[in-house]
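Troubleshooting log. The previous structure file for this entry was overwritten by mistake, so regenerating from the original sequence record. Sequence copied from the archived sheet and checked twice against the printout by T.R.
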Amino acid sequence: MPYALGVICYGWHEAAAVLVRDGEVIAAAEEERFSRQKFDPNFPEQAIAFCLNHAGISSRDLSAIGYGFDPRRRLGSKALHLVRYFPASMQLVTKRGKLLQRMNQIEGELRDRLDFTGKIYRLNHHLCHAASTFFASPFDRAAILTLDGAGDWESCWWGVGENASIEQFNAIDWPQSLGHLYAAFTEYLGFKPFSDEYKVMGLAPYGEAKYGDRFADILYPTPTGYHLNLDYFQFQTGHFPRYGSKLIETFGQPLHDSGNEIPTHYCNVAASLQAQLETVIFHMARLATEKADSRNLCLAGGVAMNSVANGKIVAKGLVDRLYIPPCASDAGVALGAAYLAHLYSMEHLKRHPVQSAQLGPEYGDEAISSAIQNAGLQAEAIDEPAKVAAGLIATGKVIGWFQGRMEFGPRALGHRSILADPRGREVQRRVNVQIKFRE
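Regenerated output below.
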């Protein structure tokens, strides 16, 4: 059977590898799960090895490899951006130069590391996002919307998928970026950008969207998409912090200690940010579905991990059916790259909906016992682990639950999860402070 491998690395986020066989996903994993380096962006050597070993094949059995970036795209637009913001924009060159060089050399690296002589495709980042959600969906036809920080000079992409084809309608270029907007406010609120955006989403319900008028000047829908007022930011030149002096003038000094109790003002900023982001996402969903003439919508990209906004897309009746893959962030680009590499090399794609995130490695009793012994711990085999775990949880204990294949994507979905009784505030504090090491 034909196999295709998808790879993503050297970007802002986690590296990953995905293997498809005759269009069906059979193995997928992020490199961070092996290296234990959060958001590890380096070459996914261990993730690739897992995928091949799981299938019992070597690289010589692959029909093609897809790579989820093509840095040669839009060179003219990139040059114009550097000139427009020169000399401040040279920070972009110095900060990203080495990674861009490695992206450009990816074909040679893949051939050398994997001893691979077949076809290698450098693929449009957002097209890979689109493929990762539509080809994995159960829909014969659907609108597709991808929203993220940046990829191959685009931050937003929309089009339509039908059967085994995808058509682009339009795209919005970086630095008009919803992902970088949210990252800048994540930094302003004292959290780690491109990591802690979920904390800002979680902070928003503690405040009120009182600053709607101010955010309407920062970000607003347009007939052809949306507009981000870059006067409030400096990420467009690669400088830190990502927010600028105008944002400080508008909302006050940034919060530097988010680990303690957060003042109401900053909760209101988070609530207003989330509300305005939702306004734009709903607008983009309408644009995409109306143009596609379909009430099915497929979402992908880092911004599509905003589960609060996603839920409201359905609740508001903007679509009939919504599909978002468990790997909507950059790891999912490897999934799209695998699909496209298979499609381009075999000239067809037999679609198999992805209905489970359980695509990573699994370990038997012998391997688990060995790991426990190597850690200097003791273990007891039990007949009814669910019953025992439920009893422990009811008495306030926190459970580390480990079973089956590892999930692909950032969501803990019951195979690598921390379980606790949500009724007690003390349990919440213990999980956050002692286990998750977060606010």
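The two ends are 48 Å apart (CA to CA). Archived copy saved in two places this time.
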